[in-house]
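notes to self, project folder thing:

trying the whole complex as one job this time. last attempt i did each chain seperately and stitching them together was a nightmare. four parts in total, labels are on each line so i dont mix them up again. if this works i'll redo the older ones the same way
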Amino acid sequence: MPTIRDVAALAGVSISTVSIVINGQAEERQVAKETALKVSEAVKTLGYKPNNVARRLRSADEGKPVIALYWPLDYRASFLARILVGLQNEVKRRSLNVDLVVCTYTNDYLYKEIGLTNKNRYNIAIIGAASAKDMDFLASSKSKIPVILFNRYLESFHTVRSNDEASAFEAASIFAKKGHKRVAVITTEGSAIATSFRTQSFLNACRELKMDIDPSMVIKAEHSYEGGANAARKLIRRGNLPKALFCDSDVLAIGAAKIFNQEKINIPDELEMISFGLLGADTTEYMTPSITVVSIPSEEMASESIAIAESILNDTAKEPIHAVKEPQILYRDSCRI
Amino acid sequence: MPTIRDVAALAGVSISTVSIVINGQAEERQVAKETALKVSEAVKTLGYKPNNVARRLRSADEGKPVIALYWPLDYRASFLARILVGLQNEVKRRSLNVDLVVCTYTNDYLYKEIGLTNKNRYNIAIIGAASAKDMDFLASSKSKIPVILFNRYLESFHTVRSNDEASAFEAASIFAKKGHKRVAVITTEGSAIATSFRTQSFLNACRELKMDIDPSMVIKAEHSYEGGANAARKLIRRGNLPKALFCDSDVLAIGAAKIFNQEKINIPDELEMISFGLLGADTTEYMTPSITVVSIPSEEMASESIAIAESILNDTAKEPIHAVKEPQILYRDSCRI
DNA sequence: CTGAAAGCGCTTACAG
DNA sequence: CTGAAAGCGCTTACAG
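result (full assembly):
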């Protein structure tokens, strides 16, 4: 990259003059028109761009500490708002003097994120929805800044999780108490860590509670409303529909409910539904039917993340902090207690 | 703020030694334990934090250009994902070597955003959901970096808008063609620029098309599912429900639809609904009933924003660019053509 | 009107 | 084991 020095050399003027011109002070500092022109041309031919970092140093612009949330913009993009609002609210509540910034990344490519491998860009990274590969990258300690893992676990990092296992068990217990013997499951296809863990936990709980899950009743679906709808169609087509359905995400549940409504399968009379809830709680509340969810405590997790971030900034977080938040079951029409 | 120089002075060692210690190279560089300790203590007593900007300059870490999306985390947080995904996809499509970052702000307080008043932090700002005050701030040219206004208009800035006026007219035309004479409206309370403009445009269109809107049938609602639900309750309570309802946001429409379902008011037989659509198109598609929307072309607007950003980075955007994108009417069950 | 010089706060060879 | 010095790319008094 050309520097101001190169521009000065090409234009045949001093560095000071270049600085004045590129900062638009040519008139006010009474730089000769001709000189200013020479500078502009040199800038253009070299493709010169001022170095922001140098400018900031010189201008004593240190800025506030920056907390970066890393979040992938795949099908989980819809969960971002709730978490971001949670982070933001906690920053406000604590009157932290920090900037909160969202960086998007692609699963498995976290290692490409320069904000993580360079210790001077952000002060703290909250990393959400990491894939197995992303976790490997982190575990190999290639991240140069303090990391808070969001809903993932690595011993040597700060982590904030939702107690999905207990919640899956509780969801299964509800079905068991109601005497359901057969349960269907709609789960996200692919190997996202959290969803497969949630589904696995639910299946284990069913086994423990002596409920039967025919493998053909575990439908894998693309994580979208349409995916949920397609899964519901498959279940109906297969026939012999169980009276209980578990979904590992409310997005799938909403898509599925649409089809049950269309096919006049009454929820909850003919089919009771429970879903994990990752969207804002009001979303599932205002569906028709409203959907009973094990609501992931995103807000509490976000608050805790900021609490940890604050202690990192204060240098009081020596040992990794591992926080676990309890989801809340929100009983709605799709499965009343 | 204390500098490395202060730490060195207090610890009674050289700057180099301090640098080595604070960068965790004490062992490897065989710094005497005692020396390292003195440094650590000086760091602690002074509360020294290394200056990231200086580090970056020294480490020749210039980084990529940064495009910052400014978005408020109020009730409009739920619209963020769709726009962000749109921006991200276009960055990818163009293989731009830029960082995309989201900065949250509070309406009316855009002027506090240091990223805008300091020209060295971000290279380009895309500003969404600006309030009138925020626009004043921008118009007063206090922003030091190139700005792209998202769904707002100021002559001297790059702007990308949705043609809400034409769309509102088209929505009204649909009702008019179906012979509706009376129409109800649910609109967002408060003075958000876009929503009030949409509602106003719709009301104007109704007047032009000789449809009657009783002012008492224009219900102001908090922008949330609950707000939409409350508005629907008000409409029902008032009695003499029109057969056509317009909502300025799909969030309101979804909340309202829930109540109509509960009250067994058949959509569309007893009441036809059209809403502006700010959420992803699939959301309203999978509601029960699915909701006919004038879908704001967020994706196209995002693409255009990135196109403008690219030309700014290439210095080929001399004059302000003003782009207008056409919304698309998506016919769903709530109002078939 | 223009330029030489100082200095922002660091890191990194290099010398001892 | 430790320190003096150079220098990252700028901006800003200051001198002329």
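what i see at first glance: The longest strand of chain B covers residues 66-72.
need to look closer tmrw
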